Amino acid sequence: MTVHQAKGMEWPVVFVPCLQRNRFPAKGGGGKGKWHVIPKEAVKDADRYDGSVEDERRLFYVALTRSQKYLFCSWAPVQDNQLYRKPSQFVGEFVASDKVLTAEPAPAKTKKLAPQPRRDIQNIALSFSELKYFFECPYQFKLRFLYGFNAPLHEALGYGKSLHDALAEVHKRALAGDILTAAEAEALVDRHLNVPFAYPDLREDLRRSGIQAVQRYLKDNAEKLDKTEHVEQVVEINLGDGLVVNGRIDLIRRTDTKEIVVIDFKSTERAQDEDVSRTQLHIYALGYRELTGTSADLIEIYNLDEKGKHQREQVSPELEEATRTDILKAGAALRANDLPRHAKWAKPCGTCDLVGLCRSREAS
């Protein structure tokens, strides 16, 4: 900005460049001016309208006093212009002060401080579903949750969630003493089915499949509904070291022999690798322990689409502890940004939506 515009302002550092003779102080302009229109003799104190070196010196003082801490004044000759080849007379007056250096001082030799993070430990919060992707492939986790690549929308998107919501109503009403029967499956599915990207024929197929799945579930589990303990139970696992895992357990039920079963519902559209599901269920078992202070007895993956294709096993303290260790390793890998892709084509690659960003598909 111009010096005039800077009046009344201050900055920690100020630069005053172009201190050349005929520029600052400025050379009077040539050609016709005001005194060619108005006789100078007709104006009282006419000289004050011409400006003088003293006026320019006062303006230079304004420029210098805009600085709070550091002030840099400079000039450089304009080689192809005779008017601007020498420094301003103000430069000589300025450097005469014992407060001014004519060469920039060498920087002080100081030992750099070691960088310190604002927090010693970076807190990490993960959901059950995010861990599922991490255990399948750390690189897929990176693309999805750190880089923000979204998978393509599937036409049946929402089908699995709709079945979950229908069964959640079944179990919540069971907790209230209202036991539903298979005859109410159609109304349940119609109330909860939400598949916004399905074309009409596909939507009808999904509706039919959903009704069959809910009917089958209500028939096969009619005598167990009154043993429901928790539905869509939110759990949070604090593993220490700034790592928290949170999620939702579909169903917690007791058996006739008072054993506690942690159940996760799966539909074909949401099927996943068996080993990953077992790990996920042991995460749920950890969540149940965090919730109640006691250990669950059984973990179960209940397949809603295919009768009899369920997985059920006892909670293994060894696998539970191994799962805890795996989650801590996942947190450490996230902090270190150590999220590699599979060294070679692996089973998850065949169904990965983002494999095109990772490697070429191999012939099966």
Structure, explained:
With 364 residues, this protein is an alpha/beta fold. It folds into three domains: 3-95, Rossmann fold, CATH 3.40.50; 121-152 and 223-335, no CATH class; 156-222, no CATH class. 34% of the residues lie in helices and 16% in strands. The chain is built from ten helices and eight strands. It has helices at 3-6, 53-64, 89-95, 128-136, 138-146, 159-175, 185-192, 200-220, 274-292, 317-335; strands at 11-16, 67-73, 124-127, 228-240, 243-254, 260-266, 298-303, 311-314. Helix 9 crosses helix 10 (317-335). The longest helix is centred in the middle third of the chain and has 21 residues, at 200-220. The chain is elongated, with a radius of gyration of 39 Å. The mean pLDDT is 85.
End-to-end CA span: 69 Å
Q: Count all strands and give the number.
A: 8
User: What class do helices, strands and sheet pairing give?
Assistant: alpha/beta
Coarse shape: elongated
Our count of domains comes out at 3
Mean pLDDT: 85
The residue fraction in helices comes out at 25-40%
Number of helices, where a helix is a run of at least 4 consecutive DSSP H or I residues = 10
